[in-house]
Amino acid sequence: MAHKMANSTLQRQVVALLIFLCMRDAVCETLQYSISEEMEIGSFVGNIANDLGLDNRKLGIRKARITSEGSAQYFQLNIHSGDVVIEERIDREMLCGQIVPCLLYFEFRLENPVHFYRAEVQIQDINDNPPIFLKKRLVLKIHELSPPRTPFILESAQDSDIGVNSVQNYTISPNEYFRLDVHSGSDGSKYAELVLEKQLDREEQHEINVVLTAIDGGLPPKSGTADIKILVLDANDNFPQFSQLVYKVGLKENSAQNSWVCKVTATDKDQGSYGEITYSFNQVSEKVVKLFKLNQSTGEITVQGSIDFEETRIHEINIQATDGGGLSAHSKVIVEILDINDNSPELIITSIVSPIPEDSLPGTVVAVLNAKDRDSKENGKIICSIEGITPFSLKSSFKNYYSLVTEIPLDREKVSEYNITIIAMDCGSPSLTSQETVRVQVSDVNDNPPLFSQNSYTIYVNENNNPSLLVGTLNAVDIDYEQNAKITYSLLPDEVGEISVASYVSINPANGNMYALQSLDYEKIRDFRTVVRATDGGSPSLSSNATLQFQIIDENDNPPIILYPVQDGASLSSDLVPRSALADYLVTKVVAVDGDSGQNAWLSYQLQKSTDPSLFNIVEHNGEIRTSRPITERDNMKQKLVIFVRDNGKPSFSTTTILNVLLVDGFSEPYLQFSDLHSEEGKDSKLTVYLVIALVFISFIFLVSMVVFIVFKIIKTRRSQEKYASATGNFYDDSNMPKNLIDVNGTGTLSQSYRYEVCLTTESGGSEFKFLRPLLPNFPPRNETVEANLGINPHSQTLCNPVDQEDPTTEVRRGVSRLRVE
Ligand SMILES: *[C@@H]1O[C@H](CO)[C@@H](O)[C@H](O)[C@H]1NC(C)=O
Ligand SMILES: *[C@@H]1O[C@H](CO)[C@@H](O)[C@H](O)[C@H]1NC(C)=O
Ligand SMILES: *[C@@H]1O[C@H](CO)[C@@H](O)[C@H](O)[C@H]1NC(C)=O
Ligand SMILES: *[C@@H]1O[C@H](CO)[C@@H](O)[C@H](O)[C@H]1NC(C)=O
């Protein structure tokens, strides 16, 4: 657009210049004009006629015309007025760009005469172009760690205009990070510098948008903008950060492999690799490495080894998180292991006292135990008990120590050994147990005496035994042990009469075997008793007694001895029988004794030979000789009877005797009268007669007995000396056995005969009636062959049978009784 105001001054300047320079030659003349660009077509540039001083009316005639240089015709000449106007739009920026000045030329030609003039038109710039940024969007990458005042040169804006119309200033939209510095280049052009004013932080704002405005100096100014996008480049300026400083987790012991423990998480605000975190253990013990596994990328911790509460209760795992830039952070995982009841209690016997004496007082400590459990709390709490029922109890002495004590007195004889099973149980759930056996032996104390099976023993010994015969074995039992049960047997000093028992029997102290020391004679000693003592080897020793009753068993070693009729060889006595006697008249009684007893002394009588076998008979079991029939005149006066007496022993002994019987006349009357007196006269006179008769008879028998006794003694002594060198003499002398036996026979004087056996002792000063007992019957021998006489003279022996036979069949026989006097 032209400015009309400026035009006039411009035209005047151009004209003046033309006149001054080029008037001397037509050709040389140069007209100068100045116009603004972008003026409207037809706009006035200058009046060339006026400027050249030509008559504008002659222009047509002279065929005046203008020709632009170049192809484009910007100007046109009005032939009538001589005005040059703009024919075509003139854009200075297109024509000249930045060239200053911008000139257009044209020729002004005249004919008749030919003249041409050169005209130059200076095109003035107008601010018709705004500044333009070639890139409307600028991306600027700035490292976040760039220090403040760092400049960033920005691309300049372009303005086709020149001079002041070109870019004169830059501004940016307000922001907190940058300011803009505008500088002038060496050519005067302006450029802008973005200056960092404040530290960037990508993590806070990773992108900043500002608008850059370029302003030119036109009037009015024009501006152009560009968007600048500032991308803040990441720097590894952020440390990874754990979500927790310390992670606390509980983990059951014995957790399986790959069990989940926990997950640590760290974050990093940085980007990309700077924000990529890898986890690792940091300065952890070897144990932790073995037990736990850490996933480097996820931070998951899992179990790798076997977790044992008893080994380690707390694991501290230091974990490091590292980002791709090498920055790291630390955290700690505290893994608290939770106990589970996986350890059985442990029982340790610290001391044991065995054996213990059975007399230990209740409360005696037998063993000390220590119970342990590696688990903790309830799982490690132990309860100890004894299995079964024992005489022991557990006492808790102090923490987890127990003593095993006796509760009641012990008795080795009942239980000599205890296997005490002690059970330890923890309180976990389920609870675990363990057990230990304490073997306690009970040692013996001598608390039991030896015991015999019976209080008394009866030992039967056959007479005439071998000396040193084993007569029996005693056995006492002591339930104690070993030395305390070692029994020694002994016979207590005792006496049989005046002879010590020790001379009859002895006992083996070790085994209780009893031996006879001498041959025993039933006829001298029938029984004796002594006390045997069993003593154990304890200290002090205990003992017990038992009574020993020795019974000597009779053997048939004595032949019957006939006391009546007396056989002294010299004078054979005769019995008188009245011829008037009827049948069954009691002639006499054969009296025989046997030193033996029982069967061996049961005598039987037989008539072996007689002058007239039909006249007499003998009662087999009592030796009474009676008439079988009445005596006749024809019977011989002298009758001789051979009587055979035999005992019932096996083998049996026998003896014969001869009895002479005289048959006489008129013999029976006085006896009958005598018996009448007995009833009629006074008792005194009758008794006197009896006593006189008895005394006479006794004296007679006594004398005979003494003779027989002496003979017997001599024989016996000789026999004993032959058999046993010692001790026999003693027996005989010391024996308190009755030495005399006298049978009183009232035959012939009494119609009813009473017979008494009288034993007299040599020791007692006077005779004394002790008791009166019935005489036992001598049963007749069975039909056995009569044994031969053993050559012992029956007349030479007189023996007393001091003890009655113990035969339950004992009965009182009429008219026969034995009077024993001691
Ligand atoms: C550029 O513009 C700014 C703000 O508009 C102004 O302060 C400054 O003076 C200008 N500079 C020039 C050389 O005109
Ligand atoms: C870590 O965990 C990821 C995802 O669970 C898994 O793919 C990777 O194999 C694990 N790395 C290791 C070493 O176990
Ligand atoms: C105790 O145990 C021992 C060894 O096991 C065994 O020899 C003995 O017979 C047992 N005693 C009892 C009384 O059970
Ligand atoms: C055994 O007998 C003796 C003598 O008779 C007596 O002193 C002792 O006390 C008795 N002992 C026992 C245990 O009976």
Walkthrough of the structure:
The chain has 822 residues and is mainly beta. It has six domains: 123 residues, Immunoglobulin-like; 97 residues, Immunoglobulin-like; 76 residues, Immunoglobulin-like, CATH 2.60.40; 98 residues, Immunoglobulin-like; 103 residues, Immunoglobulin-like; 202 residues, Immunoglobulin-like, CATH 2.60.40. It has eight helices and 55 strands. The longest helix has 41 residues. The termini are far apart. The protein binds 2-acetamido-2-deoxy-beta-D-glucopyranose (4 copies). The site of one 2-acetamido-2-deoxy-beta-D-glucopyranose has 3 residues, from loops. One 2-acetamido-2-deoxy-beta-D-glucopyranose binds next to strand 30.
Structure in a nutshell:
With 822 residues, the chain is mostly beta strands. It folds into six domains: 2-124, Sandwich (Immunoglobulin-like); 137-233, Immunoglobulin-like (Sandwich); 258-333, Sandwich (Immunoglobulin-like); 346-443, Immunoglobulin-like (Sandwich); 451-553, Immunoglobulin-like; 561-689 and 730-802, Immunoglobulin-like (Sandwich), CATH 2.60.40.
Total beta strands: 55
The small molecules bound here are: 2-acetamido-2-deoxy-beta-D-glucopyranose
Average residue pLDDT: 79
User: Helicity, in percent?
Assistant: 10-25%
Fourth-level CATH superfamily of the largest domain: Cadherins
Main location: membrane
Keywords: Calcium, Cell adhesion, Cell membrane, Glycoprotein, Membrane, Repeat, Signal, Transmembrane, Transmembrane helix
GO cellular component, one term: plasma membrane
Transmembrane segments: 687-712
